[in-house]
Amino acid sequence: MNPEHFALLEEARSSLPNGFKVELSGDIIVMMVSPSGLHQRNLLTVRRQFDAHTPPDLLPSENTDLVSPHVGKSRNPDLTYLPTAALETTENQVPAERAAIAVELVSPSNPENDWVGKVRDYPLMGIPLYLLIDARAKTVTLFSRPDGTRYHRREDIEFGETLQIPAPFDFELVTSGLLPY
């Protein structure tokens, strides 16, 4: 994507009012309302497990824009883990390829954004792991092994099962505490 075009879209995105989560996917600006209590509860259930297994050089962030101007993408995952140095900035943006994982809880009002747009965008952006929690279907999906165009591995489980989260976290994610919508 032309860097000037991306900068113009980024300027439009950043001028929108507070209270919205806003992302860029090519020429599309995606706006989302603030999450529900159930969304936050499920996110915290997952985050506690990640926090217990996170290497000391990574920090969690629940509202950082991951940007990839070269592919025209700016995404804001529900949860990501970034190197400590990446968060030593006054900006709310970091290069997407610095993220160790993107964790998303499927939005009931716009599931295609998580299931289609982000499955397409995150490997292009260099994000090695994408964990997708769908409380509508009571499923958890881990996408991994990106090659810069797509993820080559997908693992699906149902709420109540466990899922092996690979390095750098390397633990069994327990999903029995997740609640459906």
Give structural notes.
Helix content is 23%, strand content 36%. The protein is α+β, with helices and mostly antiparallel strands and 181 residues long. It has a single domain, classed as tt1808, chain A (Alpha-Beta Complex). The strands form 3 sheets. A 6-stranded mixed beta sheet has the order 3-6-8-9-10-11, with helices on both faces. The chain has a 5-stranded mixed beta sheet with strand order 2-1-5-4-7, with helices on both faces. Helix 3 links the parallel strand 8 and strand 9.
The CATH class is identified as Alpha Beta
**Percent range of helical residues:** 10-25%
**Total helical elements:** 3
Strand order of the largest sheet: 3-6-8-9-10-11
What secondary-structure arrangement, pairings included, does this model have?
Layout: H1 3-14, E1 20-25, E2 28-33, H2 37-52, E3 58-61, E4 65-68, E5 73-75, E6 79-83, E7 93-95, E8 101-105, H3 111-124, E9 130-134, E10 139-146, E11 151-158, E12 162-165, E13 171-174
Parallel strand pairs: 4-7, 8-9
Antiparallel strand pairs: 1-2, 1-5, 3-6, 4-5, 6-8, 9-10, 10-11, 12-13
Task: Report a brief summary of the structure.
This protein has 181 residues and is an alpha+beta fold.
Protein traits:
single chain; 181 residues; tt1808, chain A
